[in-house]
Structures are given as C-alpha cells and as structure tokens.
Amino acid sequence: MLRSIRTLAALGAGLAAAGTLVVSAPASAQEDDFTLYAREVAGDEEEDQQQVPKVGDTFSFADDLFQEKGGEKVGRDGGSCTVVRTGNPLDIQCLGTFVLAGGQITAQVLMSVPLEETAELPAFDASVTGGTGDYRGATGQIHFTEDGDYQKLDFDLGN
Description:
Blueprint: H1 2-11, E1 20-23, E2 33-40, E3 58-66, E4 73-85, E5 90-100, E6 103-113, E7 124-131, E8 140-147, E9 150-156
Parallel strand pairs: 1-5
Antiparallel strand pairs: 1-4, 2-3, 2-9, 3-4, 4-5, 5-6, 6-7, 7-8, 8-9
C-alpha cells in the first residue's frame, strides 16, 4: 500500500489508495503474529497524474505477497483508498481484506501522506476490524514498513 502511495506522492498526484489484500496462509493459520512481504505489481497507470487531489479521489493497486523477501509467492493483494482531506499532508482512508488459506482478515486505516517527492513515508498501523474462518472475530493491528523493494506487513492478531 505504502509503495503505491509513494509512487503517487513522487508523481505529485496524491490520489487516494484503499487496501484489499489477498494472500495465502502463513505457516499456520492459527498463528497470532506473522509477517508477509508485499511487492507492487505493475498496473494501468494514467500518464498524467500531475493533478491536484480532491476529496473523493480514489486509487487502486496490487501487490504480490511473500513469506520472505525473494521467496516463493504466497498470495496477492489489491485495494483502493479514498482522499478524505486535501492539503499537505494528504489524508486518505483505506480499507482492506486479507484472504488467507484459513479465512479472511479485514483492516482499515486513516493515514497522512506527504506530497513532497523527497519525503519519506512513515511506518503506519492498520486496525484489524474482523475476520472469517480461522480469523473469526480477529482483532489487533498490522504494522506496515518499507523494506527495500518490499513493504513489510507485521500482523499482530493478539487481543
């Protein structure tokens, strides 16, 4: 998610991005804490993204997911976010669903994105809002950080 937003910020577009994420299960669907790595997949991008973002603008993205950097692909993600406040930084509301072999995990976040091309995007946490299957009633958070060509997603599903 952050890599897509970084791309937008670097282009000065600052469009929104929300997250629906799809992955295969970690080593055990019963684990409360696990890590996945996301790597952006090329998609259709508008050539002119130099527009000033407006409230209600949206952006979608997709990543391949791995249990370790450079390892075998274990899943994929896709999503969209919505601009809810303009300015610098830009505020976007993102919602996501992670589909794992044992069920699904839903999450959301309101995050601020700096629009400067050189600005580093901070790490952020998304709230886990629920789940299905093995993850029914899930709570906790997902911590997102940049990690080279990947984004590191640390799931903490503890109560």
